[in-house]
Q: What sequence folds into this?
């Protein structure tokens, strides 16, 4: 009998999934050293995530090597978990910006963040399932992805770092729940391994100046 | 002084997606698959030029093309379909093509990566493509009304579908086998 046959079925829950990637972390570690800079940078990021996530339903925090996979849970409302996740990500970006002003340039944290919501399998301090993969696909989107998108924003308007992308599901929740954040469609994209077209949104911080480009605002 | 807005143009929009591309990658590997796709896109570009089409973009295993004259669309689509039986690289590897056709007013712009078309009608033709079967073109009513009578006569029953993120669209199917 295979080992997997004897294992109990994993618990399935709907959670907000956040993928955070540290921009150019490998380059930083190679240039300035893992022990001198890289390790402290990733530890600082973990600590900041813990601070912003603790009161917002952070349930899973797993290293992905050069970033983290997080999930947020709300026992009363899965949609609220998505709101908490976006709130946590923007609070994280605020704290990162504050920290970056106080540390040497080589120790700066710059992030790419993606938020999705979906059913996941709970495994020991980890999560599995297609929605996890989709969140990683969102995080991988870059300027280079846009020429292959339909109705894309101009690539030059896509930021290089410290931004938040979200899936249609999360955009719908933010829109329905009258959240304080504005969203701009960055285009329809095909995500590797997933059928069909998916509209991807950039979530703008509350104090974002009016430079929405020609993106479509979610109303 | 404000720059003039980019021009809107009424164009026929064609979307084509290769059927069975995931199977091809799984069975023959991504190196073979990318060679097959590359050759297919070279043929599609050549056929596009022959049929007065502007190839807007290739996206993995699909492409978006536009036509000033909708009468040029079906000869182009049929010539693409013929690649399945006539192009040695495609024979037995590509399971078919999903085609969709829509007619609409789009923004035609030059970007840092080349020409592009923007607008809700682009989403319509892309979403509509997901309803097509291999060897078939799905045509919106807006496009069909502007097409030659023989294609209107060949079109199947009218169907209606609510598209993601927008309104509904009326469309018909035209079988390409035997064209």
A:
């Amino acid at each position: 009998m295979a080992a997997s046959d004897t294992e109990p079925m994993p618990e399935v829950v709907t959670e907000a999934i956040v993928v955070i990637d540290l921009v150019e972390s490998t380059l930083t570690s190679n240039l300035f050293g893992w022990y001198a800079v890289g390790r402290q940078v990733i530890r600082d990021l973990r600590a900041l995530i813990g601070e912003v996530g603790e009161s917002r339903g952070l349930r899973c925090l797993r290293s992905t090597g050069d970033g983290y996979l997080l999930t947020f849970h709300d026992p009363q409302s899965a949609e609220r978990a998505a709101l908490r996740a976006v709130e946590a990500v923007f609070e994280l970006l605020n704290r990162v910006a504050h920290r970056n002003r106080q540390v040497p340039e080589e120790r700066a944290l710059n992030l790419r963040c993606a938020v999705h919501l979906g059913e996941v399998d709970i495994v020991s301090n980890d999560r599995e399932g297609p929605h996890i993969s989709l969140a990683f696909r969102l995080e991988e989107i870059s300027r280079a992805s846009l020429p292959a998108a339909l109705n894309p924003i101009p690539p030059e308007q896509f930021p290089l770092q410290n931004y938040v992308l979200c899936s249609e599901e999360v955009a719908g929740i933010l829109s329905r729940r009258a959240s304080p954040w504005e969203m701009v469609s960055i285009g329809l994209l095909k995500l590797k391994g997933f059928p069909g077209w998916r509209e991807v949104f950039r979530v703008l911080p509350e104090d974002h100046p009016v430079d929405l480009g020609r993106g479509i605002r979610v109303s | 002084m404000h720059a003039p807005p980019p021009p809107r143009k009424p164009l026929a929009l064609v979307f084509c997606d290769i059927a069975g591309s995931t199977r091809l990658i799984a069975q023959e590997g991504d190196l073979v698959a990318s060679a097959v796709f590359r050759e297919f896109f070279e043929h599609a570009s050549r056929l596009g030029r022959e049929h007065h089409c502007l190839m807007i973009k290739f996206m993995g295993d699909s492409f978006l093309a536009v036509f000033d004259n909708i009468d040029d669309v079906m000869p182009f689509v049929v010539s693409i379909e013929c690649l399945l039986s006539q192009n040695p690289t495609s024979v037995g590897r590509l399971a078919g093509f999903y085609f969709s056709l829509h007619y609409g007013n789009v923004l035609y712009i030059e970007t840092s990566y080349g020409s592009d078309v923007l607008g809700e009608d682009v989403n319509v033709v892309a979403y509509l493509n997901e309803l097509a079967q291999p060897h078939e073109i799905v045509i919106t009513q807006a496009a069909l009304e502007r097409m030659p009578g023989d294609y209107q006569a060949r079109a199947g029953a009218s169907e209606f579908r609510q598209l993601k993120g927008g309104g509904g669209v009326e469309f018909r199917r035209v079988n390409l086998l035997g064209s």
